[in-house]
Write a structure and sequence with these properties.
The complex is a heterodimer of chains A (283) and B (338). Chain A has 283 residues and is an all-alpha fold. Chain A has a domain of 156 residues: MetI-like fold, CATH 1.10.3720. Chain A has twelve helices and no strands. In chain A, helix 1 crosses helix 12, helix 4 packs parallel to helix 7 and helix 9 crosses helix 12. Chain A is globular. Chain B contains 16 helices and two strands. Chain B is flat, with a radius of gyration of 27 Å. Classes of the chains: A mainly alpha (283), B mainly alpha (338). The interface between A and B is large, with 108 and 118 residues.
């Protein structure tokens, strides 16, 4: 075999592997969406039906109108939105203050604080479930969305500070010094100079926190009992353990839950990797 | 970076000379030394109240009897100190050994497979042409973005006994081959989520599917930072692909791999959502429990025993903190916190 032929063969092999990986990653997601749009006779069959032959919106319509666990899926989407946005908005303010402190000031205990952040990030949230459940109950927040908001702030905060501080540190100090020399006060410098420059990082961090809160399942399972207060992940479990599963409806609901995450994900994917392995990847 | 004065230190000796009067007045009102601490107050309060205090409480509860009698509406009993009773009960329970075995074996298998497969895909992404590489990255992103609850549901559907696509695909195998490898030819109706071994098989597939993209993209990011001259030199010297990986890529990316291993361990050790949903919630077979699920079931399923649940959670946390210390040390060593 000539070198060029061998090279071309290598290329073909690599591209084939690439396509195989793509299919392995995408197929299950595709299958979820395809099932959501198949009529029941195409779902409950031992045959392979690669795509909806007779596409239907009946399942999507059903989860909206007849609903899941007694409520329209709107209710759960809205609940999830309230919990995630509430946690993100409050969390972003707290995280920005703390990130500014560690990225812009030198003070005693700074290193200790950063190490504390790393360690609390590693405490498994499942392990805090029992005491937090009791605390939420004592505060009268059991079965309330506010309880989930508070919990999600705590779950996302350490990582948000950790990620945001690199964005604050990346803003050149000279800009703030220039504003300072021009007579701007500390507050004005923060809002007019630092904040606009950190804003993209704040958005990326907030999206990450949003996804975490949107996906949160364990606390939503434990702290919420009334189906009117279910978030999306909690509502999906309604189908689990039933004798005959309504796969069309469950796939429609899963698709609806996955769409926002997927959109956000494509937006922040790059920054997420750098945030998670920060310190290990140089350059 | 630490040496240059920052605006924030405006109140220090050099600042009053630089700026207008009113600023000097303002900084006097609020000692600049206090500012970073003030900025940290809300964050520290949240961490202390919602993460550290519960941790202490959990430790305390693990030495207490906190069950039904402590939660009944009428004259609840105070939590009773029972010493190491909960821990003794944990260690004596046969569920401890099965759930510890499930936790550890699952983590080992899932972490190894995720890392090996993720690294291979990362190398592949690096080798592919630019267009094809983006195509694969975007594709893997789809798996990565699926919420854990939906991951469980998607795989539950694919492994469904009657209408699942996996059983359909296995039926495609020529009968003699299927018979020789698995000892059966007909897969229709094969339930995958009834016994522990096959539940964990499906769980490994689901977890590897959802987490290899992160590994692959991280490895790809690392590979892009390695100067291509090194690879050219290796090629000139006639090194093969395997040798190049172990002699150049791996040593240079060692810190990345260290963090990836630890992060994957942490995620896979405490897996809850996917296992809980795949195996059918609290009705799952008891010998399929891992430590997280067991702790949850003891604490919240009647008869609720929160003290016992807390003791199990402590065992899990100690294991995780031991693993985590490696990660923390790696980050502290890389000067990122100084």
């Amino acid at each position: 075999m000539s070198p060029t032929a061998r090279k071309r063969l290598g290329r073909v092999a690599l591209n084939t592997a690439g396509v195989a990986v793509f299919l392995f990653a995408v197929f299950p997601v595709y299958w979820m969406v395809a099932t959501a749009f198949k009529p029941n006779n195409e779902i409950f069959t031992t045959d392979f039906i690669p795509f909806p032959l007779d596409p239907t919106f009946e399942h999507v319509e059903r989860v909206f109108t007849r609903g899941v666990a007694g409520h329209s899926i709107w209710r759960y989407l809205l609940n999830s939105m309230i919990v995630s946005l509430g946690a993100v908005l409050v969390g972003a303010v707290i995280a920005l203050l703390a990130a500014t402190a560690v990225a812009r000031f030198r003070f005693r205990f700074r290193t200790s604080f950063l190490i504390l952040l790393l360690i609390v990030q590693m405490i498994p949230s499942e392990a805090l479930l029992i005491p937090l459940f009791l605390m939420v109950r004592r505060l009268g927040l059991y079965d309330q969305l506010l309880g989930l908001v508070v919990i999600n702030i705590a779950l996302t905060l350490p990582f948000s500070v950790w990620m945001l501080r690199t964005f604050v540190a990346a803003v050149p100090k000279e800009l703030e010094e220039a504003a300072w020399i021009d007579g701007a006060g500390r507050t004005a410098t923060f809002w007019k100079v630092l904040f606009p420059l950190v804003a993209p990082g704040l958005v990326a961090t907030s999206i990450f926190a949003f996804i975490t809160a949107w996906n949160e399942f364990v606390f939503a399972l434990t702290l919420i009992n009334d189906s009117g207060n279910f978030t999306m992940p909690r509502a999906l479990t309604f189908f689990i353990g039933q004798r005959s599963t309504d796969w069309g409806a469950i796939m429609a609901a899963s698709t609806l839950m996955t769409i926002p995450v997927m959109v956000f994900f494509l937006l922040v994917q790059r920054r997420m990797v750098s945030g998670l392995v920060a310190g290990a990847v140089k350059g | 970076m630490a040496q240059t004065p920052t605006i924030a230190r405006g109140g220090n000796s050099s600042a009053p000379a630089r700026g207008p009067r009113n600023r000097a007045a303002r900084t006097r009102r609020l000692s600049p030394r206090a500012i970073p601490y003030l900025l940290l107050v809300p964050c520290l309060l949240v961490i202390a109240a919602l993460l550290l205090y519960p941790l202490v409480q959990m430790l305390q509860m693990s030495f207490q009897e906190v069950g039904l009698r402590q939660f009944r509406a009428r004259n609840p009993l105070p939590a009773e100190f029972v010493g190491v009773d909960n821990f003794r009960q944990v260690l004596e329970s046969e569920l401890f050994w099965t759930s510890l075995r499930n936790t550890v074996l699952f983590a080992l298998v899932a972490v190894t497979m995720t890392l090996v497969f993720g690294t291979l895909v990362g190398l592949l992404m690096h080798k592919l042409g630019p267009k094809m590489s983006i195509f694969v990255v975007v594709g893997t992103m789809a798996a990565w973005a699926v919420p854990p609850t939906a991951q469980a549901i998607i795989w539950k559907w694919q492994f469904d006994a009657d209408a699942g696509i996996v059983n359909w695909a296995l039926n495609l195998l020529p009968d003699w081959l299927s018979q020789a490898v698995f000892g059966r030819a007909d897969w229709t109706g094969q339930p995958w989520l009834n016994d522990t071994l096959s539940i964990y098989f499906v769980l490994v597939v689901a977890v590897v599917w959802a987490s290899f993209p992160f590994i692959a993209v991280s490895v790809l990011a690392g590979l892009k930072s390695i100067p291509s001259e090194l690879y050219e030199a290796a090629r000139v010297d006639g090194a093969g692909a395997v040798r190049t990986f172990w002699k150049i890529t791996f040593p240079l990316l060692r810190p990345v791999f260290a963090v990836l291993v630890v992060l994957s361990m942490i995620w896979d050790f405490k897996v809850f959502t996917q296992l809980f949903l795949l195996a059918g919630g609290t009705n799952m077979p008891r010998d399929a429990f891992n430590l997280s699920v067991w702790s949850y079931v003891e604490a919240f399923n009647p008869p609720a025993d929160m003290g016992l649940g807390a003791a199990i959670a402590i065992v899990l946390t100690v294991i995780l903190l031991l693993i985590t210390s490696v990660y923390v040390r790696q980050i502290v060593k890389s000067e990122d916190v100084r």
